[in-house]
Amino acid sequence: MRQITIYDIAKEAKVSVATVSRVLNGTAPVKASTRAKIEALIQKYQFQPNAMARSLLSKETGIIGVIVPDLTNPFFPEVFAGAEQEAQESGHTFLLCNTMGSYAKESEYLNIMQEKRVDGIVFIGGRINLKDCEPELVQEVVEHANKIPLVLVNGNLKNTELTRVVTDEYTGTLLAMRHLIELGHTQIGFIGGESHMTTTSIKLRAFRKALRDEGIPVREEWILPDSFSVDSGRQMMQKLLDMKEQPTAVCCVNDFTAIGAIKTAVENGLKVPDDISIVGFDDIPLAHHVIPELTTVSQQANELGRMAIKVLRQMMNKGKTKKLTALEPQLVVRQSTARL
Amino acid sequence: MRQITIYDIAKEAKVSVATVSRVLNGTAPVKASTRAKIEALIQKYQFQPNAMARSLLSKETGIIGVIVPDLTNPFFPEVFAGAEQEAQESGHTFLLCNTMGSYAKESEYLNIMQEKRVDGIVFIGGRINLKDCEPELVQEVVEHANKIPLVLVNGNLKNTELTRVVTDEYTGTLLAMRHLIELGHTQIGFIGGESHMTTTSIKLRAFRKALRDEGIPVREEWILPDSFSVDSGRQMMQKLLDMKEQPTAVCCVNDFTAIGAIKTAVENGLKVPDDISIVGFDDIPLAHHVIPELTTVSQQANELGRMAIKVLRQMMNKGKTKKLTALEPQLVVRQSTARL
DNA sequence: TTGAAAGCGCTAACAC
DNA sequence: GTGTTAGCGCTTTCAA
């Protein structure tokens, strides 16, 4: 069924398309009677102007592209929700692309966004978290950023000047570690994350720093990166528990691994937090519904999303934009940590 | 910075735009030397053809609009992921719209999708779950469906012939209830959901039916709809526990409420499943990471998403489409239920 | 207050 | 093999 156009309306109203366009956009005065006639027709046919034809002229699509690594991790929907709230204001809507960690897909989606002429791009996860990203992958992003406003969320690309919005994960981890240390823990392990990713290495740096500050020796064998999943948390915790000497507290790379770690600890007959303290990172919604409720570091995911859009909007309006916006993470003490 | 066009390429290559278009689309043979020249230019400028101009002709945008009520409930990202996987094949990408339960937003997004001429619409949640949806809201959806292929996921709109993909929630609940009854439970409560929504009433119908089939009287005071959140599960469970007589098992409207119910039960000193059995519905990823692991009914969220796209694709290709596709839910027995 | 016409970037006849 | 040209549906001068 053919969609009706401004011509159909114009014809039936016996006016020119220009006039119809005028009542559609309120861009110039139209005699009340003609306006009424046209509006009636619009109503009658439920006419909606073709946004593409419009965008072709205006060079604006009203679409923001979002690249996320895995929507199944609740952290990302939170960020997205924040972005959506903020975008209400400017009437933007979202092309959401899930890469499932594939760099090839990131490229593919980047190209699609470029073709569709999205007004801006939010890039989270994937290659921008690599400690050592291949130059071509970096270059690709830079080239897109030259054409379309683009903001990196919680990531970075070396030797580039890309605009970024991040939570200060270093400080966040410090917060978590100091909390543990204040509770009397000195035997602390680290679980999860992938060592080739910056999130992980930043957190590990803070982990070591916190220990060193207190003159506590770092036990390398208790540092067990692996991945970001619940299962990873379970496996690494099991590894820890199979050792002769075990830590009394564990700092996890995110809430998923923390939930896994708790589960395995409990299965091994330990009580959390009495026998072992566990902290997560992110503060996903379920963190305070889990048993025991998770002590964690809030990334303010929602705020992160909002901020990304705010920054993007500045860029779209050609306003000057800070290259780096950092949000302060917050320690959220709940039930999974206790005094030694 | 002006985006470059097919004209720029044509000019510099000293050929017509038609030729450039031909190499872009491989739609007709082009002499190897000219082709090479053009391709070099495309490479040089990283030229990407404007998809809108293209769509204006082709009447296809390659975009599928998805309306979801709340991306923060992990069930929906799962559905979305399934849809995305399936859409790979046809190269579709997604305009994702989160309504946060607002019918006004649904209308708004529906209009935006219409304006943007998306190739198809997937509608989940919101008004399509209402037992009694206002005629205007129904009509609106029907009108959009007349112009754009549209599929309803896990919902329905009375007196319409809209295409639907659903999981059989009635059978699913029957499965859960029979499981409880086989374990010897006869004192069973129901928690969560909103009574004006079909999901809830379908499940309640099955709940009653299962009891009746076994000649077990229904205790109306143990039926506590409220909402779909974890907190709702907590509150309703507390209500149940505050009663003089308490059920030995609880059937929850979804996994969120089940997780809440477990939490409150545990806080009240009960052991799950020893003192009280609890079943959820949905089988969100966290269901088997929670302690105790949740016995629940799998909706096959991923498959649901895939199926929605498959059906949508049929509609887009004007193939004949079944009006109703039902997926069979599956009982997943884990640790939150036990013999009485 | 209204209309004619050019043009946004691309594709697809139709010629040559 | 390649170029010319007419749209796709809309906005926006410029005239009237």
From TrEMBL, chains A, B:
Query: In its keyword annotation, does this UniProt entry include Oxidoreductase?
Result: no
Q: Which residues form the HTH lacI-type domain?
A: 4-58
Q: Which InterPro entries match?
A: HTH_LacI, LacI/GalR-like_sensor, Lambda_DNA-bd_dom_sf, Peripla_BP_I
Keywords of the record, alphabetical order, are:
DNA-binding, Transcription, Transcription regulation
Record keyword Transcription present: yes
Supply the SUPFAM superfamilies for this chain.
lambda repressor-like DNA-binding domains (SSF47413), Periplasmic binding protein-like I (SSF53822)
For this protein, the record's Gene3D superfamilies field holds: 3.40.50.2300, lambda repressor-like DNA-binding domains
- Source organism, top-level taxon: Bacteria
Q: Could you identify this protein by its name?
A: LacI family DNA-binding transcriptional regulator
Q: Which organism is it from?
A: Cohnella soli
